[in-house]
Amino acid sequence: MWKKFLAICTVMILIVALVACSQSQNGTQPPQEGENNEGQQPSGDTGNAASDGPFGKYDPAIEVWTVFQKTDSNLSLDEGETIENNRYTQRYEQDLGIRIKYKWTAPSTQAKDKINIMLTSGDIPDMLSVDRETFEKLYSADLIEDLTPYIDKYASPYTKKYLSGEYQHALDVTTKEGKVYGIPNGVSYHEHAPMLWIRLDWLKNVGMDLPKTGDDLLKIMDAFVNNDPDKNNKKDTYAIGTYKSTPGEWMNDAFWNMFNSYPNIWIEGKDGKLQDGRFGNDYKSNTKNALLTLQGWYKKGYVNPDFMTMNYDQYQEDVLNNKCGIVFGAEWDAYGPPLLTQVQEDPTIDWAPVPIVSLGQQPAKASTSVFNCWNINVVRKGYEHPEALIKMCNLYHKLNNDPETMEFAKYNTDPVTSAAYMDLYPLQVYNPSFNYEASLAIDKALETNDPSGLCEAYKLFYDRIKAYLDNHDVTGWCDYRSYTKDGSMGVCDYYLKNKMLMFNEYTAPPTQTMIEKLPVIKKLYDETVAKVVMGENISLFDKFIDDYRKLGGEQMETEVNQWYESNGKKSINQDLNK
């Protein structure tokens, strides 16, 4: 049992490393001794000119002052290592001649306040990893360096790949008037989209296959309610597992997307202007249709009759108690409760991810963002070696991300001990489609039964998948249902190949109207959905649309289109769905 637990922990740490940047951790440990050691921040060594080339070494070495924001995380430090002196600080000095120094170290829960204090005084370190809100403040205060010429000259081919071509929109977040002011870190559209998860063992029990059309899905839903999918000779199941919307969306984006409704994104409409993908003129009738359909499903018993008042824990109980067989989810559902918990408890159970199907007037598309930004790495304006950040990104990619060069067990995650070393580096920048690329390589190795070409990170997943396929070792179920053509990355690949993604075309920060009005609008919308689903007249939705525009929807649309006009009205959907 302990071996299985350790194996799952190892993979979960790896997923966190590759999918969820640790800049946003919410640890609660108190500050440890030395965490508030404010230091003198020198302006930087200027004893040499910048060495040419992506990995050019400074001689004599230079100092890069930054901050360490993760002392509350479960840092993996081997004997003799400290935050200030470890495998990363040593390797960066050895390979690049860069000495990483910390102005202060602190838990992530305190870091933002400390950064805001520095911002107010204008006293920021040479380099800094910040959230998007802080980036905007730094840019507005003219405190950060234009990195455009340094990216052009110093970025390695691997680094440039993920800032250009099909990844060029990653820089939308940090580009101002044609100049790039930060290196973004996050995940790309290649591996992030909503999808369905369906009980495959239930499908077998009712003699049906995975859905390929909307009609298929409707028949499956009916069978999951009326054809005893759990074979207990009782009518005690329903089709869909869900719960009260707060703080997310009723039924998840996957549900609305099947009706060509796209919550929380802005899309260019028929008039060439951006409009809300759910409440805009081109989409409100689709949302209305989805809402009416949900009302019908509720009457037919396709959802738990109490789902309007259920919380997430109660939803999990329904799944674990075999009450439902369809979940509207996303790409990493196999790595956590309730699906993983259920499969671990009963290995005969199997959940399969499936692309959304169309229940609307047009082919279905899954809503996503071209780039989900976790953090942005910036350089203090006036720092003598701004190109050093680009070199540091190059080396991080080399050690962690590039399959040809990675030293994964040493610098990211040890597959034996589960030690997560990546958090020792303060300016992380991941390959934004690492997991998608891994799945393509793993699928090829599975087809040929030849893993010899896999890098150590990919091989870790491959071995677990083979153990599941060959020996039904449940430890590898989550990897199989994520990193293969039969997993969530396979669904993402299907979306890409079939042009089934609908991108958010508003990539700027929230406007002031959004910040002030969206909570009020969401509350009214949630109340409207609840009433309609419970049987009240659909005219309530029409009234909501009128109220939405008065409460701020019209003003938000104006603000969004002012931004769109100023950026040349470049449609991401037209660009990436050619």
From TrEMBL:
InterPro entries cross-referenced by the UniProt entry: Bact_solute-bd_prot1 (IPR050490), SBP (IPR006059)
Signal peptide bounds: 1-22
Record region (Disordered): 25-53
Regions of compositional bias (Polar residues) in chain numbering: 37-49
Keywords tagged on the record: Cell membrane, Lipoprotein, Membrane, Palmitate, Signal
Entry-linked Gene3D superfamilies: Periplasmic binding protein-like II
Pfam families in the record: SBP_bac_1
SUPFAM superfamilies associated with the record: Periplasmic binding protein-like II
Name of the protein: Extracellular solute-binding protein family 1
